[in-house]
Design brief:
single chain; six-stranded mixed beta sheet
Length: 143
């Protein structure tokens, strides 16, 4: 089962095609395909977010599995993805005061949110940070 990470923003960030399985490169990708093609996924996610534009964020292995989740993991293989996520958010969402993230197992998008966290953007790149499953994150942007 894959970990899925979803981003909600005030305006649509750019879509970045998946480059395939490239572990350790930190090449993230973005897509709206699963959200647009599945009513269950789309509706389940819209209920979790306050911001209107929802995008799936994939890691350098295509899915979200190379983002640390469920607890501390192998920082050497996951850290490039966390650094790239912060850079992507800073570049493409930097004018927004906040963005929202939600992480879950793929297929569990309609499940209840189990955790809520308010964090700073820089915390996503902290080597001790990891995503909880079925957790919502309100991320304060710098500036």
């Amino acid at each position: 089962m894959c970990f899925c990470l979803y981003l909600a923003t005030a305006s649509d960030p750019p879509l970045i095609p998946c480059q395939g399985y490239q572990p350790g490169t930190g090449r993230i990708c973005t897509s709206r395909r699963r959200i647009e093609q599945s009513l269950v996924i789309g509706e389940g996610l819209r209920k979790k977010f306050t911001l209107p534009c929802i995008t799936e964020v994939g890691s350098d292995v295509g899915c979200g599995c190379a983002f640390r989740n469920q607890g501390p993991g192998d920082v050497s293989s996951t850290q490039p993805n966390h650094v790239s996520l912060v850079a992507f958010l800073a570049e493409h969402c930097g004018k927004e005061s906040l963005v929202e993230l939600y992480g879950c197992w793929c297929g569990d998008e309609a499940r209840e949110t189990e955790e809520r966290h308010d964090i700073e953007l820089s915390e996503l790149a902290d080597e001790e940070f990891y995503f909880w499953i079925n957790a919502y994150y309100r991320v304060r942007m710098p500036g």
